[in-house]
Each structure stands twice: as C-alpha cells, then as structure tokens.
Amino acid sequence: MRLSGRILAITLIAIIIVIATSYVIGIMLVGLKGSESFLELVSLEKAMGFKDMAIQTAATHSDEHG
Is 6 helix (H, G, I), strand (E, B) or coil? Predict the structure, then answer.
C-alpha cells in the first residue's frame, strides 16, 4: 500500500516537471506571441500520455498487491 502511494507521488511529480518543462521550451521556441495555443497543445498531449501511463501503472500495482 505504501509502495504504490510512493510510486503515485513520484508519477505526479514527474507529470508536473514535464508540463513545466514543456511550457519553458514552448516559450523559448515560439516566443511570447502565439505561445498560448502551442503550450496548450503540448501540455495537453503530454498530460494525456502520462495520465494513461499512470493509470496503467496504478492498475498493474493494484493487481500485484490485491
């Protein structure tokens, strides 16, 4: 139970880091003009991918531990 909670916390931290990094990279690449739509696309795409991965990870660990 504690191990899966720790894994979930690490996953959430990773998601936050990836989204923050994508914002910084987006600002650097596109500049401040027109960056909002680009950032929305990048952050949504990455968040959805990581959310699916986190759900799969959580499901796997819950199966292992009952």
Answer: helix
